[in-house]
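User: I've been trying to design a sequence by hand for this structure and keep getting stuck. Would you show me what you'd pick, starting by listing the structure so we're on the same page?

Assistant: Good idea, let's start from the same input. This is the structure you sent:
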């Protein structure tokens, strides 16, 4: 049981519960949001510390070739930034002194200026107002915009830290009690997680409990197709791009079954609304933030290549992996810099365990068709033997190991030697370690420990 205690102790729950209210407007000409956030301090403090994550993207990476930059930015490097315009003590209207400081070289070693914000407080309980402005870069995925659709999961505003950061700067997102309102131009639509409500062009949201992020996703209204499904007192909302409504609606119907399996073993998910959103990227990357799952257009444009439903089971597995993040990485905070394996490895463990219980663990279980035809026969001949765990999880890690690219699971990004193997190390090696631990402890005991987190 000692190993299980070490695993549980590795999570950072940082449930500060500070009240954070944010009100911003969007300027489509400048690709900026601007406004204020208010932080309530119930106890006197001499200073407050924040991390300004957007400024990590203010400068291009000088250590990589332009070809690598092109894989991130649509039309060459495009900066992201957050500018702090004022710090005000609401009780008196007094302008407070603040300074922007460089971040320690932990998550990266460039673009570190103005990442840490220190605000001097008047040593009394009260409310601090920060006026800020954040720019969305033009990128293939996020944070930023792709065409006229805007996405930002973490750090589009200054994030209150629990204490002054030290030389080591773990990338942990603290939990706060957020309320957010976003004003958009006429004819635009936002999809905010949580308990969203709309008043004209203003979109507001709040959450049932403290969360570590509030994702933004918005664009012109005509760019989206929406539908809803109610299940067990929870609202499931789908947001598809034109032409993909049926495919995303079909995936939406899998959420109740997956959530039920997770909740039975690992405890209830507290929010009563979950968004399943199609992101316009043609990069094969899925993402999650509190209450919202993003699937890429890459999947929907390839789901029926060669035969109808070729990638359907792969999409179901990806959905299960992303939903698992509502418990691990999002629901229980981790250091995304040095300990991201706890987020990705546990999400792999949950999703693959569910998938194998649902579709079988042995033999080909990824490319399986209910009807037969020439296209289905071709896919079955070429790929029908593929097993999710054996060929997409165990084999990639074993190749990484035998080629000499393996590294420790717990490792700050600045110390990683083989970044090309990071995904296999965090996702697949993380899964294998957790699967082995479940075998040693017994699956029931292991799941009981996870539920306690």
């Amino acid at each position: 049981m000692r190993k299980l205690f070490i695993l549980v102790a590795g999570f950072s729950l940082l449930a500060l519960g500070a009240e954070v209210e944010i009100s911003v407007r969007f300027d489509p000409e400048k690709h900026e949001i601007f406004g204020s956030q208010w932080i309530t301090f119930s106890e006197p403090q001499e200073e407050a510390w924040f991390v300004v994550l957007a400024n990590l993207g203010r400068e291009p990476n000088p250590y990589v070739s332009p070809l690598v930059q092109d894989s991130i930015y649509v039309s060459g490097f495009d900066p992201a930034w957050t500018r702090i315009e004022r710090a005000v003590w609401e009780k008196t209207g007094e302008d407070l002194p603040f300074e922007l400081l460089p971040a320690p070289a932990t998550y990266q070693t460039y673009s570190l200026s103005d990442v840490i914000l220190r605000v001097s407080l008047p040593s009394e309980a009260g409310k601090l107002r920060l006026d800020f402005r954040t720019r969305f870069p033009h990128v293939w995925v996020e944070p930023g915009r792709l065409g006229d659709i805007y996405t930002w999961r973490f750090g589009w505003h200054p994030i209150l830290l629990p204490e002054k950061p030290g030389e080591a700067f773990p990338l942990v997102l603290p939990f706060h009690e957020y309320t957010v309102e976003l004003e958009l131009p006429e004819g635009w639509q936002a999809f905010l997680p949580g308990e969203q409500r709309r008043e004209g062009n203003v979109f507001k949201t709040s959450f049932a409990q403290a969360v570590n992020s509030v994702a933004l996703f918005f664009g012109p209204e005509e760019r989206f197709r929406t539908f809803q499904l109610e299940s067990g007192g929870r609202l499931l909302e789908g947001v598809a791009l034109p032409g993909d409504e049926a495919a995303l609606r079909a995936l939406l119907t899998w959420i109740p079954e997956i959530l039920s399996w997770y909740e039975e073993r690992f405890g209830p998910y507290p929010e009563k609304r979950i968004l399943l959103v199609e992101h316009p990227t043609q990069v094969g990357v899925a993402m999650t933030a509190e209450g919202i799952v993003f699937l890429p257009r890459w999947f929907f444009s390839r789901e029926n290549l060669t035969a109808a439903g070729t990638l359907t089971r792969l999409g179901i597995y990806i959905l299960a992996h992303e939903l698992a993040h509502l418990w691990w990485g999002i629901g229980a905070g981790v250091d995304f810099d040095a300990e991201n394996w706890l987020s990705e490895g546990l999400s792999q463990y949950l999703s693959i365990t569910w998938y194998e219980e649902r579709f079988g663990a042995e033999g080909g279980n990824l490319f399986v068709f209910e009807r037969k035809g020439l296209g289905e026969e071709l896919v079955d001949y070429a790929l029908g033997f593929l097993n999710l765990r054996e060929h997409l999880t165990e084999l990639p890690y074993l190749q990484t190991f035998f080629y000499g690219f393996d590294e420790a699971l717990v490792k700050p990004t600045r110390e990683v030697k083989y970044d090309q193997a990071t995904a296999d190390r965090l996702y697949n090696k993380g899964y294998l370690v957790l699967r082995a631990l479940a075998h040693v402890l017994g699956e029931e005991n292991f799941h009981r420990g996870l539920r306690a987190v």
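That's my pick for every position. To get oriented when you compare it with your attempt: Residues 224-453 form a domain with the Neutral Protease; domain 2 fold (CATH 1.10.390.10). The chain has a mean pLDDT of 91.
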